[in-house]
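ok so i was messing around last nite and threw this chain in just to see what happens. nothing serious, just curious
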Amino acid sequence: MDEFCLVSDGTLPLVNSATTSVTDQISSLGNNLLSATILDTRSNPLRLSELSALLEDPQIELVAPFGQLSATAKSGSESQTATVYGTSASYQQIQGLELESGRFLKTTDLDNSTYIAVLNQNAASELFGSSAEAIGKTLTLNGRSFLVVGVLAKDDSVMSSMMGDSLEVYIPYTVLSAMTFPAILSATGSVWSAWAALIVATALAWFGKSLLQVSVCACMVVFLLELFL
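result:
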């Protein structure tokens, strides 16, 4: 599944915000902020071109893709688990993210699949000691090197307080997409069970099975194989 969020002028009917690949749900997060969860299918995956097409509607001001995964973030001898968000330049304005230093993602970063990263305060402090030390430095996410180009200002919102001291890293959506496939193969106890589950899931999806059926069968394959491996 993938997600995207958009900002409208407040008069946009929900049905007009859907593309052909929006098959799950659209929920309101504010007077003019919508978030949609897209269930990818074999015939209608989420494409960035579809999101760009949404901007042709005069009632939509901004749109941004959004995906995430958990990754091991390393800088020198420091190693932490971080939540990695893949998105675009518009996400900063949509969510009202403020920078303490550096910059946020740019459109060219997505176009070129540039390996750059923007950190929240917790990630900068845990991995580099401070936000000032983070800019221009390199960290790795699941073994891939990223240049830190920005650090977000401290977030004092209620939502941030509820999430605690989580480490957050923002990277171009296109780069996150490229990281997702190898992440699947390292998410289980054995690479063989991961490959087997991937093959089963792909076959079931090809024959039009539901997301629930695909997920349950893939999990069962991993569980059964790892009993013997």
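not much to say yet. Residues 8-30 have pLDDT under 50 and may be disordered.
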